[in-house]
Write a structure and sequence with these properties.
By secondary structure, the chain is of the alpha+beta class. Helix content is about 40%, strand content about 25%. Strands 1, 2, 3, 4, 5, 6, 7, 8, 9, 10, 11, 12, 13 and 14 form a 14-stranded mixed β-sheet that branches. β11 (about 270-280) and β12 (about 285-295) form a beta hairpin. The termini are far apart. One of its GO terms (molecular function) is transferase activity.
Length: about 375
């Protein structure tokens, strides 16, 4: 793993973090993650380490660390990209591998602008950072988006929002039962009850939440098998279709279980899993990672049934303030069950430098904006 140089900022007052002296990178990251301004389970140290170990492949992944004196205040994995969408222009982007569904860096609460000042300064100075910075998967209303925009405005650094979509979010003070009645139509609720009764006629139905770490390997095996039995297996995108993604899943769930951040649910029919759901927690938030169902029982909507269990698990846990669905926009199932939305945004940010590097970066940023603008005008015709 490449560790980028880190410029020091002026020390803050009363900072909750610990100095890095004598601490391993993982320990520094864990301390920072506990004070994160914006939760992101995908960049929490255990999940990030699992991704680096198993999903990095040939990607040139570097870890930016921002310091405030001796204190670590920011962490962001980045990677060099050969293209920007359809444009064949090199750029640097926050690292979002195929199993990462949120891209907010881990920054210390109260030090968001200082962290972003350090991130951008490092990239400005880095000869390995081409073009511009492409930030993906941020919460438009989150601490990182606000700090990034503020720092760019203060520095008169060009920044452009280049995409946005909404996805389902669960955030409510209601009980699970009250939320279900408030957000799901009466006709749909009646149909779900009918399906539950019909499924129960087929055998013994049991719902479980994993609590015993000793059974985690078996649950992981059951999940991988169940997911591969459906359309993802046929399409070659199930976790078990590649050894490295299966290994990542086992490592990430084991680390999260040890840290108390794993929420693993299942529904069994006569002792065999017919629906399973994996969530990762971080701070007051949680992220719904993967769902798998027995598609031969699709007529009973097992995906909806386990989401009902998930609703009870999330809204019944005082330690979880919200859950991000991590779903695609306009998802037909989860959008019909969860009433709240999270706006996910991406930015293109100009990088600076000196001499030829500055000119090249400025030209690349301007060219990308020009092509994008032309494409938008052509689309309007």
């Amino acid at each position: 793993m490449d560790m980028a140089p880190n410029p020091a900022l002026k020390p803050g007052m009363g900072h909750p973090l610990q100095p890095p002296d004598g601490l391993s990178p993982d320990a520094r990251w864990a301390t920072l993650a506990e004070a994160a301004a914006e939760p992101n389970a995908f960049y929490a140290p255990d999940m990030l380490r699992a991704a680096i170990d198993h999903l990095r492949g040939n990607a040139d992944v570097r870890i930016l660390e921002a310091f405030d004196g001796p204190y670590l205040i920011g962490l962001m994995p980045v990677t060099a990209m050969r293209a920007h969408g359809r444009l064949p222009v090199a750029n640097i982007a926050n690292w979002m591998h195929d199993q990462c569904f949120f891209g907010a860096p881990i920054v210390a609460r109260g030090r968001e602008r200082a962290a972003w000042t350090a991130f951008l300064a490092q990239l400005d100075q880095a000869d390995w950072a081409p073009g511009f910075l492409h930030m993906r998967g941020l919460d438009a209303a989150g601490a990182n988006a606000a700090a990034l925009e503020a720092v760019c405005a203060a520095q008169r650094r060009p920044v452009r929002e280049i995409g946005r979509y909404d996805r389902a979010l669960l955030r409510s003070d209601l009980s699970a039962e009250a939320y279900w009645e408030a957000n799901v139509r009466a006709k749909t609720r009646k149909e779900i009850r009918r399906l539950q009764n019909r499924l129960a006629d087929m055998g013994r139905i049991e719902s479980h939440i994993l609590t015993d770490a000793a059974t985690l390997p078996r649950w992981c095996g059951d999940f991988l098998t169940l997911e591969a039995s459906g359309w993802k297996g046929r399409a070659g995108t199930a976790l078990s279709c590649a050894p490295h993604t299966a290994a990542f899943f086992r490592a990430a769930t084991a680390a999260a279980m040890a840290a108390g951040r794993l929420q693993f649910l299942r529904i069994d029919l006569d002792g065999k899993a017919i629906a399973m759901l994996v969530n990762f927690r971080h701070g007051e938030g949680a992220f719904s990672f993967k769902i798998a169902i027995d598609e031969t029982l699709g007529r009973f909507s097992p995906g909806v049934l386990i989401e009902i269990d998930n609703l009870r698990a999330v809204l019944g846990d005082p330690g979880i303030a919200w859950m991000d669905s991590c779903a695609a926009p306009d998802h037909p199932m989860i959008d019909s069950l969860w009433g709240e939305r999270r706006s996910i945004v991406q930015y293109r940010i100009a990088l600076r430098g000196a001499g030829y590097a500055k000119m090249r970066r400025s030209a690349t940023f301007a060219a990308a904006n020009l092509v994008e603008g032309l494409a938008a005008r052509l689309k309007e015709r």
